[in-house]
């Protein structure tokens, strides 16, 4: 009998692009890739309402295994773009485009990709461009130097520093407390 343990990802609920970036993290000094988990790709796609193998809008079936490679390429490209290297992200974006349409007098658009397996990756890459267009100053890396997670700061004052106060924030506060009491 095989028992599958569902991996709990840290920091879920971020915008699509950052949520893809955060499918790879460090846990107790060890790199963890959510897509290595059985059904990890399918779960991530379902969480975001993206095609999960049943087919895209054109009816073409795309298996999660076919989507994994474009998603990991997009994740790497997103991380590179967040670090200042935009070329890999542009390569992901080259796989598709948004086509403006008029439907019953209402503006609409559709995404057109060169290969249906690239649709989720393209959507995540386009989402990062959207975030940069809206509020680039709110896209942040966790202030914990050992943490690799990214978040979109939606706090009222825009001063969030940690991916989560329960994890990295508490560790930082505890370390400051220890330092004060060690030197005092």
Can you characterise this structure?
Helix content is 41%, strand content 16%. By secondary structure, it is of the alpha+beta class. It has a domain of 121 residues. It has a two-stranded antiparallel ribbon with strand order 1-2. The protein has a two-stranded antiparallel ribbon with strand order 3-4. The chain has a two-stranded antiparallel ribbon with strand order 5-6. The longest helix has 19 residues. The protein is globular. The protein starts with 15 loop residues before the first helix and ends with a helix.
How are the elements arranged and paired?
Elements (H helix, E strand, L loop, with lengths): L15 H6 L2 E4 L2 E4 L6 H8 L16 H19 L4 H7 L2 E8 L2 E8 L5 H16 L4 E3 L8 E3 L12 H19 L1
Keywords:
184 residues, alpha+beta, two-stranded antiparallel sheet, two-stranded antiparallel ribbon, 6 helices, 41% helix, disordered N terminus, ABATE_dom_sf, ABATE, Znf_CGNR
Q: What structural category arises from helix and sheet content?
A: alpha+beta
| Strand runs, count | 6
Query: What is the approximate shape?
Result: globular
How many angstroms does the end-to-end distance come to?
56 Å
Order of helices and strands: HEEHHHEEHEEH
Number of helices: 6
Mean pLDDT: 87
Radius of gyration: 19 Å
Helix content: 40-55%
Uncertain residue segments: 1-5, 54-59
Side-by-side strand order of the widest sheet: 1-2
Protein name: CGNR zinc finger domain-containing protein
InterPro entries: ABATE, ABATE_dom_sf, Znf_CGNR
Pfam families: ABATE, zf-CGNR
Organism: Streptomyces synnematoformans
């Amino acid at each position: 009998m095989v028992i599958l343990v569902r991996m709990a990802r840290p920091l879920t609920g971020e915008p699509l692009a950052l949520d893809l970036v955060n499918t790879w993290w460090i846990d107790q000094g060890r790199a963890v890739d959510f897509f290595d988990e059985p059904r990890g790709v399918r779960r991530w796609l379902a969480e975001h309402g993206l095609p999960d193998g049943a087919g895209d809008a054109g009816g073409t079936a795309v298996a999660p295994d076919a989507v994994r490679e474009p998603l990991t390429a997009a994740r790497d490209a997103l991380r590179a773009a967040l670090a200042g290297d935009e070329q890999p992200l542009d390569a992901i974006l080259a796989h598709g485009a948004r086509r403006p349409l008029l439907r019953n007098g209402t503006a609409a658009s559709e995404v057109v990709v060169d290969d249906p397996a690239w649709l989720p990756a393209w959507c995540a890459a386009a989402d990062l461009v959207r975030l940069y267009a809206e509020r680039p100053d709110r896209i942040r890396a966790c202030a914990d130097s050992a943490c690799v997670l990214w978040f979109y700061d939606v706090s009222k004052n825009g001063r969030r520093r940690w991916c989560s106060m329960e994890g990295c924030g508490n560790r930082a506060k505890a370390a400051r407390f220890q330092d004060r009491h060690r030197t005092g």
